[in-house]
Amino acid sequence: MREVVCVKRWVCLAVFTLGVAASAQVLKIAFDAADLRTLDPHYASATMDRAVVDMVFNGLVRYKPGDITVFEPDLAERWEVSPDGKTWTFYLRKGVRVHPFTGALDGYELTSEDVVFSLTKAADSKTSAYAGEYAGMTFAAVDPYTVTITLPQALSPSLFLPKVADYAGGFIVPKRAYEALGEKFATNPVGTGPFRFVRHVPAQKVELAAFAGYFRGKPKLAGVEVWYMPDVTARLSALATGEVHLIEGVREQAWVDTVKRMRGLVVDVFGPGETHILHLNMTKSPLDNPIIREAIAYTLSRTELIQAIGPDLAEPLCGVVPTYLAGGLSCDEAQARGVFYEADLAKARALLAQAGYPDGFSLSAYITERASYRKPFENIQAQLARVGIKLEIKVTDHSSFHSLIRQDVNPLVHYEAWRPSADAFLTRFYHSASIVVTGAKPDTNFSHITEADALIEQARAALEPAVQAALWKDAQEVILRRAAALPFYVLKFVFARSDRLDYGYELKSTLALYPPINELTSLK
Amino acid sequence: MTRRFGGRRLRAFVRNRTALVGLVLTLVVACLAVLAPYLSPHNPLEQNVYNMLAPPGGTHLLGTDDLGRDVLARILTGARVSLTVGVCSVLIGAVLGSVAGLVAGYFGGRVELLLMRVVDLLMSFPALVMGLMFMAILGPGMDKLILAIGLVLAPQVARIVHGSVVAIRQTEYVTAARAAGAAPGRIIVRHVLPNVLGEILVMSTLWTATAIRVEANLSFIGLGVSPPTPTWGNMIREGVRWLVVTPWLSVFPGLAILVTVLGFNMMGDGLRDALDPKLH
Amino acid sequence: MGSYVLRRILVAIPALLAAYTLVFLFVRVAPGDPAVAALGDYASAEAVRALRERMGLNDPLIVQYGRGLLGYLGGDLGRSLITGIPIGTQVASVLPHTLQLTFAGLLVGILLGIPTGVLTAVKRNRLPDYLGRTFALAGLSVPAFYLGILLILAFSVRLRWFPVMGSGEFSDPWANLRHLVLPALTLGIIMTAFVTRMTRSALLNVLREEYVRSARAKGLRERTVIYLHALRNALIPVVAVVGSQAAVLIGDSVMTEIVFTRPGLGRLMVQAMNQRDYIALQSMIVLYAGLVVVINLVTDLLYGVVDPRIRYD
How far off is chain A from B217, nearest CA to CA, in Å? Predict the structure, then answer.
């Protein structure tokens, strides 16, 4: 027995010394992922990749750290737009250094040449996943510190600035580094951000080091390690023992409550959150009958779905654009417009009988094995069963799910999404051009709705923010009236951290979908 | 078959305590599976989002899962799935594998070479990866899962049957039958098959154990029987998310797997001892 | 013996080719698309098409097939479709972890399994035998991932003796070792079960043989009889089974790697499957099939070491 205690103390002691001595000032984050996918910012779409990209690169403008409702200068000191709204001019900050890389061991100064190169890359579908966002734009370097962007049609700031912000295609990739590294750039990114890439240990981690030449000043941390740990128990244990300082959590109430009670740990629940919406395929019988769709809308209880996830994490969503974006539709507004649905089983049964299905019917749909999709879908299955609608669920891996729903096999598609603007939400999910398989530019219009096209296009062209927001709300009313999509909730993000970690800003919402780490972040 | 598995061996089997315990365990699990709807006061599919992750005790003897469903009822229902998948996939695997093994072993020559090469090839993949690949192609569903596991087992069956047949094809009665001009199909069915059937039967209990484990593995990775049907593998997978919060969610279904697989393994072991006089 | 090894390797080539062909067709028949997997929920048809083009997936199948094959002939395993990292580099970085885990599991299995096996055989039909056999059967019945979960629950979550995270780096042997303990124990317990059973039945067979009886008759001490004469001969089938179980062990090590989030060949393979990383999956399966060939060969050669009567010509 004495031996056991001895071993235990000895081990604990070792953990203690290793934990404190070796890793002081190096922040360790663990993500729910097996490995990285790509660190080319113009392709990165998964949270763990966006996290690294976010620390390594900058945009022309940036979302204020911790608050996505405000734009701040980033690589550009200031910007202006021409009276016709079609030409934007950005004046770059001087003395911005690019991280060192093979071929330029001291880095070099970022200029307009790099910005034009990067935007051109982001606009090319051969080198970017976000090319559609930049269709028809031209980019020009007026002088080393001035860049102009010309649009085919005028866009309001709330639609244009996200395209040049520190997100997706807006991240600026330094030209010489990209050309020097070629294919390797995706796993060896070089940018201008507070941390520079050091190395990638496959299936384990990525190491970043503080970039002393960062234009906002030397980071307080010595470096950041991004760990890939697909198991939440492993992540939490590692956090509890001090092996890591920040982890991706489980987006459910019970987990948050449990971790909150653990000593020395803090749980952050933050926005903007992803929308959870059920898309009803209007071309598949019997969902082609609007009465049936309405019956489903009156069957499903938003309250129950939210309860299954947890009220702290899931906020009610009544429009298809969340209210944190300009043009979002609140529950009160939906109610006022007469497109608010909540469970009313008697009404649902009456509607089913009216449509000729008094005993319900059967449906069969694929869902991914991921818990954040599968769990609500299982609850939807149980709820539909109450009115006799038998939903057969076919669980498949995540990539097959995304392929299959894009081949239009599902009568019901449960989709978790985040998009930077109301226009992106509406165009990609509800414009006829985006209809899966048969649309002009097939995307994610799973319901096959066509009736909202005119309003979506008018809103996109509107320059007056109030007018634009009103049009976006009108478009949503059309979609909801046809019960083409049933919005349930916005699911927030959950990260747990050691109380030693200080972000250096107040965390309310973040586009990177993780709590951003920047030059001000520190470990106490 | 009666000739090979006669009264003397039956007695040996009964005397074999391991086998007996295994048989009892298996029967208990089978009874629970059959009687599941009558044993549990709760519906395994009924959700209650206002009583999620309840601890064991009270009306929910083993607590509730993350959708408020009764864990005991789900474990009992899961027994049906595990046994159905185990038995059916072994049937498929045994039939496919036996045909391949019999044909290869009896005819020899090029047929044998070709078939056994295919068997070797399939066996060089890890069972899990093979199961993953079959599931990826077949798609989700219990029927697909059974087929996939059957296909994973078939090469193992083929190899063992092949081995037995090679030993038998040289024996006098087969040579005699062949000399008498009997058709190959008739010889296989009348003379060869009965002689390997005993072994197939014994091995089947062991394969069932394997099948249940493969099912659990696939379910644990997230591919397998579709919800809301509970399976032990699925339940453990779900439970693992809550390991720190409610460890019992994965511990109980795991025990169920352990007991069931142990039952089949003990029974198979005992049967094999009873059939193999060398060990006595 | 050299020609024997050469012949075995030559025979393996068609098998590897068949494995490649099979997997090549398999992954392309299955639903799912590496471009969609890479783009995630953002995937629009346009972006998917462009990425597929870049990945070379729009080329005729025969061209893709040939490209992979030519690469293998030149010793090139290709690049991951998702990350663009050479598969060779990826495998090289995780293989040491897989080998470490497998060997550690094997070592635990042999160190615990052979003595337990001998004990059960010697004390046949007495209490130690029943206990040993029950333990062995339980070990064979427990799914690796479940055993792993129980160990994590006990030693990491409750007692906090061992870390759960990753595998530690080889440059830090102490951390590396601490990371190894629980996974190796998981695998080792299962392996111990195998080895115990094999040793027991092999020893029981041998103890009935003529030379053991005569050794006993000569008045040699029981211990000498068992360890010097019987065990040595009993080891042959044990080695055979341990060798043939190496494939099973690798299967269990996949689940162990998943549960312990350890980097390794198995996890890499499952991940490639999930992301439909065709190239990575093909290459890893071929590599894996090759590994099985090598393991089988080594097992056969080991026979010769334990049993000098076996000769290779």
Answer: 14
CB contacts < 8 Å between A and C, how many? Answer: 172
Burial class of A499 by CB neighbour count within 10 A (0 to 12, 13 to 18, 19+): exposed
Rounded to whole angstroms, the Cα distance separating C298 from C186 reads: 25
For chain A, what's the residue count? 524
Instruction: Locate the domains of chain B by residue range.
Output: 2-42+70-279
Residue C13's pLDDT is 81
Has residue C309 got a pLDDT over 80?
no
Contact A132, C46 (CB under 8 A): yes
Cβ distance A254 to B45 less than 8 Å, yes or no, reads no
Partners of A235 on chain C (C-beta within 8 Å) are 165
ipTM above 0.85, yes or no: no
Residues 51-80 in C contacting A (C-alpha not used; CB under 8 Å): 51, 53-54, 79
Q: Do the chains contact at C149 and B254, CB–CB below 8 Å?
A: yes
CATH of domain A25-245+500-523: 3.40.190.10
- For the cut 70, the answer to whether the pLDDT of residue A6 exceeds it is no
Class of domain A272-492 (CATH, top level): alpha beta
Using CB atoms, pick whichever of B250, B262, B269 lies closest to residue C149.
Answer: B250
C195 in Cβ contact with C113 (< 8 Å): yes
Geometric angle at alpha carbon C170, from C167 and C174, rounded to 5°: 80
Beta carbons within 8 Å of A464's beta carbon, 6+ residues apart: A156
pLDDT digits 0-9 by tens, A372-393 = 899 999 999 999 999 999 999 9
Contact B124 C31 (CB under 8 A): no
Residues from chain C contacting residue A131 (CB–CB below 8 Å): 46-47, 50
Residue A433 pLDDT exceeds 90: yes
Which residue in the set C31, C45, C261 is minimally distant from A234, CB to CB? C261
Angle between helix A465-481 and A453-461 (nearest 10): 170
Measure in Å the smallest separation between the Cα of A155 and chain B Cα atoms. Answer: 44
Q: Tell me what the pLDDT averaged over chain B comes to.
A: 82
Query: Within chain A, which residue ranges are assigned CATH 3.40.190.10?
Result: 25-245+500-523
The larger pLDDT score, comparing residue A114 to residue B82, is at A114
Homologous superfamily (CATH) for B2-42+70-279:
MetI-like (1.10.3720.10)
- A partners (3+ CB pairs within 8 A) are B, C
User: What percent of chain A is modeled with pLDDT above 70?
Assistant: 95
Chain C contact present for B139, CB below 8 A: yes
Task: Look at the pTM and tell me if it is higher than 0.95.
Answer: no
What's the pLDDT score for residue B13? 61
